Amino acid sequence: xxxxxxxxVFMGLCAAPALAEPHETVILQGLDKVTAxxxxxEARLGEVVRFGTLEIIARHCDKRPPEETPESSAFLDxxxxxxxxxxxxxxxxxxFASSPGLNPLEHPVYDVWVKDCANKASISNDNLSPENxxxxxxxxx
Length: 141
What we know:
The structure is a single chain. 9% of the residues lie in helices and 40% in strands. The protein is mainly beta. The protein has one domain (18-120). A 4-stranded antiparallel β-sheet has the order 3-4-5-6, with no helix packed on it. A hairpin with an 8-residue loop joins β4 and β5. The N and C termini lie far apart (79 Å).
């Protein structure tokens, strides 16, 4: 009986922590080195987002729970698309919010880094830069 209780207590102490719910949005910041303009924008997992001539797809986003040391990381695919040219792959890999220089995008005009992960749209439209804001639909009236 005591052995069963001790095993139950030990298993309770050694149980893996509950997994946090998956994050569906990566919050990114980008720097245009020519204009010195910093833009904050979000990328939903699996969707293409544009920043200047760059196209970015977020594949995965991890964020540690609040009781641990803060860290957000995202797996990104980034390529450059210029009119009349084939798309050029620039970056594929993990970026870490706490260490943006650890695995950086190397580009002469743009820098992109991870800020955070979110479970829903967390940035209001007035914080989006003009190149990332969807164009208004014209209804012909």
